Structure formats: C-alpha cells, structure tokens
Amino acid sequence: MRNHLLPGSRSALPALVLAVLTLAASAEPFDGLTLVNPLASNTMRLITNDGRTVNTWHCGKPVSYMPYLMPDSTVWRPGLHPAPQLRPGACGGLIERYNWAGDVIQSFEWSGPDHIQHHDIQPLPNGNILVLSLDRYTRAEAEAMGRLDISTDHIWSEMIVEYDPFADSVVWEWRLWDHLVQDVDSTKPNHGVIAEHPHRLDINAGMIHSTGDWIHANAIDYCAEEDLV
C-alpha cells in the first residue's frame, strides 16, 4: 500500500472498508433541507420538503455529482474540469467551495494523465476532502498483475485520496491496485488462493468495458466514530 503522509498533516485515515449495505426504504423524506443539483446542470438549489427554494447557486461548471452543504453554509461541489486530460464518464476533476452568495472561495483540481475525480467527494471533520478517483493503468501493467483477456490499451482501477485544500497537498491515499490477488500465475507477487484473501479483489473478476472501465465506486462516506472510510 502506498501512502502519502505529510509532516504536520491534519490526519491520516488508517482503515478502509468496502461493504454492501441493505437499507430500509422510507416513504417520507428526512426533516430539514435538501441540496439538489441535477446532472449536467450548473445550478444548485437548497429546497424545503414542500418544494420552496431557500437558496440558488449558479455555478460555472456542470456537477460531478454530489455537492455537500457545510455547517457554515458554504458548499463543497465537484464539477467538470475545463480541460480534462482524461474523459471517462461521470468524471469531474474540479472541486470548488462556494459561499452563500455563490462566489467560489476555494478550489483545487484532481485531474491528470492517469487520474481524475469521479462521482463523489466527502468533506471530513478536519477540513480535508476525500476524493473518489479513477486510477489508470496500461494493458502491460494489468497483465503484469495477472489480468487475463484484456483487449483495451488501459484499465481503470479505483483510488481514494484525502486532500488538504488549505495546504494544497495529498495527506493520504489508498489504491485498489495495491490490494489485488490472482490465482492464474504463480510467478507474480500477488498470486494466492482467492478464498484465502477476502480482503483482496481478484483482478480477473468482472469484464473490462471497451472504455477500459473495469471497476468503480459511485459514492464514498466516512464514519468518524470508527475512523473508517
């Protein structure tokens, strides 16, 4: 596992849990306000349960995908990067903080030749931001990890980054690529019996889309009580 821990950083998240939850559906919304930003829209609205608009933000870029209203009435919002080097679906790469009046008061980018933010972020109690990111590897790198039957020139894996927007730096990172197992090639370092490694993912599980999309998450959350992602 490759971690980036910076001296004086606010925290390093030590544990990550991948889980499937079954939730009971409710016919009624939660009490309070709801922040709404339709897909491909530049406009966010804070609405009441009876449909009244409390505030509207007109943003410069479409959303990607989940904005978060903070206790101080600012909003952290992932949006579409103006010039992304990668263009897979559901990606953004530009994370901005808006005040109540709609001004951008803080921003950072998570976009490059081998990574880009997608779907979700998660503001943390310490002021840092968890970023859900695609993590690009070449076909040769995938084959070196034991992947079979790959016809694309690259493969998308998953990555989570804790980013300090005040220091403009990575505090911690977790890569799925560091937690893979395979049982087809004993000469490779990640070889093992799949059933004996429930904490690792079989790199040959699932198909690879023609775009290189092999696996991705759609949301991220943080449990402060257990210090788990």
TrEMBL record:
Instruction: Check the UniProt entry and state the signal peptide residues, or none.
Output: 1-27
Q: Which Pfam families match?
A: Arylsulfotrans
- Which InterPro entries does the annotation name? Arylsulfate_ST, Arylsulfotransferase_bact
Q: Does the keyword Signal apply?
A: yes
Q: Which domain of life is it from?
A: Bacteria
Key words, A-Z: Signal
Keyword Signal included in the entry's annotation = yes
GO MF terms here are:
aryl sulfotransferase activity
Know the name of this protein?
Arylsulfotransferase (ASST)
